[in-house]
Amino acid sequence: MQVPSFFSRRLISGALLILVLIGGCGRFRSHENREYVYVWAKGTYLRDRVAPVSNRVAEVVNGQRLEVIEHGRRFLKVKTAKGEVGWIEEHGVIDQLIYDRFTQLARENAHAPVVATAVLQEDYWLRDAPGRKSNRFLFLPENATLQLLMRASVPKPQPAQILLPAIVQPEAKGKKETPAAPPPPALEDYWLVRDGAGHVGWVRGRALDEDVPDAIAGLAEGQKIVAAYVLKTVEDPQASVPGGRVPEYVTMLAPWKDGLPYDFNQVRVFTWNVRKHRYETAFRERNIAGYLPVTVSQQTFGKLAEPVFSYRVATGDAPALDPQTGMVKPGATTTESFHMEGVIVRRIGEEPGPQARARPSGRAAEHHLRRHGRPRG
């Protein structure tokens, strides 16, 4: 038997090394090119085959990542992190590109200021953009408390209409009728929200119930309370609240209508009457175009620390909605600031006196929203 020479052994070793490297590179490339999808359904099962009758292989839940092994017709063969392999319908998952959009939303809005809070009235899935045709992913259960970050108003999908042939009327001599302009599209509101786990996405406004205390919810007089902030608390041992400490609120109200070019058009302060044990309106400002958030703080006036609240209102031409994003374009704004003296609300900067309390600003919120003269008496 002929023994391989030194050079032959080196040649064989080199060839084997190259094969090992090629195999390793192949495994590396296959790892880098792995395809993943993410379950958007609340919960579903992987099946052992695509057939009318099949067996459940594993249960998968909302948000779970699955590795794609094979593409079929309307189905994907996937593998879980535990190594379970089965088939799932394509419409029950989202791809990596859509998942990255939700990741980016969460990253960009991780520290976005909260303008109000709300509670979900029904089960809902976060969307990556406002509108019913956007992609949905993360599941939110009913009664989840959410932080509201910003609002957008987009056209509401309309049902298909059957067009009937128009009836032609004889035209008067020398008279041409101008066709009526089509009505503007109906709008619906969406809110960019953040949940307790830091997930961020869009939720339809009608699925949210603003987090308003029950004690003042019935005092809105047909308006919707869009936000409520505690200014201070007062002691009333006879009040049916824990410890007899009753909160007093500044609230922002708006009509029950989507697509408004402002967040609220009325401000009311509710104080507690310790003799009659009920809430009363201590301040009201109407006919404004106001914007969230509202800031509440404590400042010292003289020797006393008093509650202060501020909000922005439009001062120029009527605000509008951005046709591309649906976001509010307020234009020129100014900041209104008020402080409380007991149950008296005074505008900061005004001379103290009986005429300084609870006066409307006199802004018209329809077209120009310009300040009118403040009455004096």
The residue fraction in helices comes out at: 10-25%
Backbone structural class: mainly beta
Q: What kind of oligomer do you see?
A: single chain
* Low-pLDDT sequence parts: 26-30, 351-377
What fraction of residues sit in β-strands?
A: 35-45%
Q: Averaging pLDDT over every residue, what do you get?
A: 83
* Distance N to C terminus: 123 Å
Name the strands of the widest sheet in spatial order. Answer: 6-5-4-1-7
The domain tally reads 3
User: What is the H/E order?
Assistant: HEEEEEEEHEEEEEEEHEEEEEEEEEE
Q: Tell me about the largest β-sheet.
A: 5 strands, antiparallel
Categorize the overall geometry: extended
Radius of gyration from the alpha-carbon trace, in angstroms: 31 Å
Q: Please give the count of helices.
A: 3
Question: Can you walk through the features of this model?
Answer:
With 377 residues, the protein is mainly beta. It has three domains: 35-96, SH3 type barrels (Roll); 109-156 and 187-209, Roll (SH3 type barrels), CATH 2.30.30; 212-356, no CATH class. 12% of the residues lie in helices and 41% in strands. The chain is built from three helices and 24 strands. The protein has helices spanning 6-32, 96-108, 214-217; strands at residues 35-39, 43-47, 56-61, 65-71, 75-79, 85-89, 93-95, 116-120, 124-127, 136-140, 145-155, 187-194, 200-204, 208-210, 224-235, 245-254, 266-273, 278-285, 290-301, 304-314, 320-321, 328-329, 333-341, 344-347. The protein has a five-stranded antiparallel beta sheet with strand order 6-5-4-1-7. Strand 19 (290-301) and strand 20 (304-314) form a beta hairpin. The longest helix is centred in the N-terminal third of the chain and has 27 residues, at 6-32. It is extended and about 100 Å long. The N and C termini lie far apart (123 Å). The model is unreliable at 26-30 and 351-377 (pLDDT under 50).
